[in-house]
Amino acid sequence: MSPPSRRLQTKPVITCLKTFLISYSLIFWFTGVILLAVGVWGKVSLEAYFSLASDQTTNAPYVLIGTGAIIVIFGLFGCFATCRGSPWMLKLYAMFLVLVFLAELVAGISGFLFRHEIKAVLGSAYKDAVNNYNATDAKSAAVDTIQRTLHCCGENHFYDWNTTKYFKDGNGIPASCCEENVVCSPENLKDLDKARDLVNDKGCFSLVTVAMESNLGVIAGISFGIAFFQLIGVFLSCCLSRYITNNQYEMV
Hints:
Elements: H1 4-45, H2 47-52, H3 60-84, H4 87-113, H5 115-131, H6 138-150, H7 165-171, H8 186-189, H9 192-195, H10 205-251
Helix pairs in contact: 1-3, 1-10, 3-4, 4-10, 5-10
Main location: membrane
Subcellular location: Membrane
GO cellular component, one term: plasma membrane
């Protein structure tokens, strides 16, 4: 058995580490809430962009939502493990933090490295969606959403609709091109000269690619920030587990 004075010196260290780790776990729990919010934001704000490049909606927002939910659960687990002072629970918590760190690091690096490729694919997909617009399928709905959200019309100019099959079939320019607070009649949208003063004249192609690249940058930045934040928790968990184990051993 070690001297009582040494055990007394260890207890303040354990108490200090517990305080730091509980504070960290609460912050970690909050980062899970942030990821949940980013996932919901991605689902609402970026769904139109992703759906252009795929016949089905992307699972990326659901991945963020799922990851955020898991982090929320393990954040609470970290608080419980710290309060219990269980070495094996603290080690399990540290292992989870390492896995989250690696997953978020890979996701952040992938999003950063492939942002230009994603932008190019999205731009090409937008051109194809405009040329094959029919006002009924998912990609046409995505085009309408983008034109309303970004206040734009066509690929580079609203005149681009003149070459599409949709316009040539007598449907005119989509109503999603209309400026805000402007009432566009179907007859006016079928005449380019009359539509000139009613629709947005700015093209969507450059706006779509810039918006997507900036949004991917935000997601990658958040992933990097949260990923490196996990290392603090790994360090605190390992230190606390070691001190508790040594303290228990010294009391024997």
